[in-house]
Fold:
Amino acid sequence: MFPAGKTAELNAKARALTLRHLQDVVVVTINDAQGKSAMAYADDFYDYNGFGIGPDYNGLLLLID
Structure:
């Protein structure tokens, strides 16, 4: 995955974007999509981990597989 310093930097940038645009910004790195397509994995990860802001659960997720 990413070195510790880069992970912290990426998290800080995601938080800043979340605040600026009022939508969750999520970056997920995986080695195994558990038999799912990238789209299905990303959709499930976003939905089942409580991401999203407001009544429409606004946000975006970048999946790096």
